[in-house]
Specification:
327 residues; alpha/beta; Rossmann fold; Dihydrodipicolinate Reductase, domain 2; 2 domains; eight-stranded mixed sheet; six-stranded parallel sheet; 14 strands; 25% strand; globular
Amino acid sequence: MDKIKWGIIGCGDVCEVKSGPAFSKIEHSELVAVMRRNAEKAEDYASRHNVPQWFSDADELINHPEVNALYIATPPNAHAVYAQKAAAAGKPVYVEKPMGMNYAECQNMITACEEAGVSLFVAYYRRALPYFLKVKELLEKEAIGKVTSLQINLMQPPKPDDFKNVTEHNNWRTKPDISGGGYFHDLASHQLDLIEFLLGEIEDINGNAANTMDWYNAADVLTASFKFRNNASGTGHWNFTVQPDEKKDEIVILGREGFIRFSTFDGNAPIILNNPSGHKEFSLPYPAHVQQPLIQTIVNELRGKGKCPSTGKSGARANMLMDEITS
């Protein structure tokens, strides 16, 4: 496969800047078609982004002969069915995160792609961003000595839509039948995937999940404790009910000789390193299209020129860990 000709299923908000434009900015890659159930919106996206073809029917796009790779950018409840259809059509799949509604669904996606002999990638794009690669480099160079523990703290105030009656609010991220859970599934999935990328697999995890405010039918406060295979311990605290001045987004990795502190979602926040050599800060702002570095690795792999760090098997683990925490 010399040129990757992409089709997007679900050309919504995430495709405007984060991902969509990147497909045509990478050498040997081109966005040739998009699909959205709302035909007017599909046509509008295609017109604004200079995409040659648009569809309102996913099957038409999946089976279009010019499309040889698919990006599934729908909410999670549609990931599995479209991934399996793409596999049946013999086309590699790049799917948004979280990969599926639960771990079992992810396993079905992996099996479908393996049996069809097609590649499966997941949009955990932090695995390819320079910001997080710097954190990984510091760990590999033992800048803080032996890693002993890790802390995740994500505190966010509610969105205006959260206060509406459960039957009225329109945020699909807080509807478990669409998202798989709530804000935790949308955001913590990135963090759980990232910490395994940085420190290796988690082998033991326990959690608690509570719907404390009853604003929607999903957990809004969650905690977890876990242990990595390398024997480091970790904790996580996610609270989506706090006041605006209590907002926090940090991961702290503690080692015998210091610590590394960084943000998961704020690319302008510096990476902070404290060790016996002193205090250092590293600024590595995100690129204009945050998924572009990961998409580049996918294009490279499909062309036989490299490997993508975010696969179906690695992506499914985030769902497995979330299942354990919320069960």
